[in-house]
Amino acid sequence: MKKITLILFVAVTLFSCNSAKKDTAKSTPKALGKDRIEILDFYGKHRCTSCVNIENHTKKVLDNYYKKEQESKQIVFKLIQWDIPENEAITDKFMAAGTSLFIYRIKDGKEYISDISDFAFKKSDDAAAFEKGFRERLDAELKKQ
Question: pTM score, two decimals?
Fold first, then answer.
């Protein structure tokens, strides 16, 4: 009976996780500090062309259109290698198990996580389409700040 209960508990826990959460809010401690938007680009040791393109396109858009916001730390870009032990906590928090791109917004002590990985992979081979879509998503998050 204990085995069945344990199996059911594990199954419910696993199926309740959803890695494609869109703009979900979480309460956080005040230690988060200043309201801001973080662009989190998770990557692995072995990178494909799409993975490299996602990083390059993201940096280009931020440097070309959001320089002022980066200088004021309203927008912060973070490149995070997901497959090393020292990044395990943040990788687990965002459920990043491969190349992933998130817009992580902190406002009034709450976190809002927008996983835009699917978009990023679909547009990784088209710089203009990536730029347009990424800017639309980022501008929408900036309006919420």
Answer: 0.77
Tell me the C-alpha distance between 125 and 71, whole Å: 29
- State how beta strands 110-115 and 75-81 pair: unpaired
Strand partners, 86: none
Which CATH number do you get for residue 84?
Answer: 3.40.30.10
Does residue 101 sit within a domain? yes
90-126: pLDDT as tens digits: 999 999 988 999 999 999 999 999 999 999 999 999 9
- Domain limits for position 83: 21-144
In angstroms, the CA 24 to CA 43 distance is: 22
Strands laid side by side in the 75-81 sheet: 22-27, 110-115, 100-107, 36-43, 75-81
Query: Contact at 8 Å (CB) between 142 and 37?
Result: yes
Number of domains in the chain: 1
pLDDT value at 58 more than 90? yes
